[in-house]
Fold this protein.
Amino acid sequence: MNRYSRITGTGSFLPPRRLTNAELAAQLALQGVETSDEWIVERTGIRARHFVDDGVFSSDLALEACKSALQAAGLTPQDIDLIIVATSTPDMVFPSTACILQNKLGANGGAAFDVQAVCSGFVYALTVADAMIRTGSSKRALVVGAEVFSRILDFKDRTTCVLFGDGAGAVVLEASGTPGILASDLHADGKHVGILCVPGHVSNGHILGDPLLKMDGQAVFKLAVGVLEEAARATLAKANLTEAGIDWLIPHQANIRIMQSTARKLKLSMDKVVVTVDQHGNTSAASIPLALDTAVRQGKVKPGDTLMLEGVGGGFTWGAVLLNL
Ligand code: ACO
């Protein structure tokens, strides 16, 4: 019998502290940084984001998302033999956030590691978990995106600090005799490292370089719209399907204009695109599983639907996963 992987449960978690654009603008104004709800909504589609309080880490957000995904799948932490966390904001330099999460869940003993592909992290992690399940290395995995981007934002830089938020999303991926994940397509081009990065590093007990996020927004925008179309088309071709076979496009939630452009290129109506960027901002690796879980719990995305998940981010990295829910 062929062995495939399927998503059997989804979960997500947002830290309770929510800031509307107006509330963030008022806080920034106190530091002499000028922005407005109008500018943020018009350029990005973002209306609000959630930020963690001091002492809350990516693993804490991931824990809540995983508990909810496990409940949806009808499983306990002891059923899990693989945990992959996609994050660019790990709790520590090491060990991995996946190991910290594993211990908090009480799911000790299986494999656990982090994937670092910035905003494409979740599609990378899902592809790795799918491969490990298909080859028999794992039976039941938790695949997680979790971020506390508020910790790496420069709140004096209005071109970036209004864009991001914190949160986590998770799926349970299980071995199955019928295909859930149909195809995936992953890429990176390291020559674009400098257009989106946190260039600082730890050295001899000090932070060398700038530990806050830097972005050339226009360069990222141009690259993102091109590669997202390519990845979607490549994934469809691998699965022998066309755009008409997509019930829902669930793209990385960075900017509504990037999503509109991708939908236009794929000839998909915006009614088929899951949009949560307005309420969550850009939560990097967490954005796709957060959007997926939100749409599942709203009853929009249903079992049997064909979903195209797409991510793009720092590296530059990009990719897509096509699946039957
Ligand atoms: N509030 C008010 N004014 C602002 C703000 C702000 N928060 N930020 C920039 N401005 C000003 C600029 O200073 C500039 O003013 P000027 O004309 O007087 O010089 C003006 O607005 C236009 O700035 P641009 O950078 O040209 O604005 P643009 O339309 O390119 O929008 C944005 C910027 C939203 C960052 C856009 O380039 C973008 O979305 N890029 C994609 C990047 C992205 O989504 N990154 C997320 C991470 S990567 C990923 O997830 C894929």
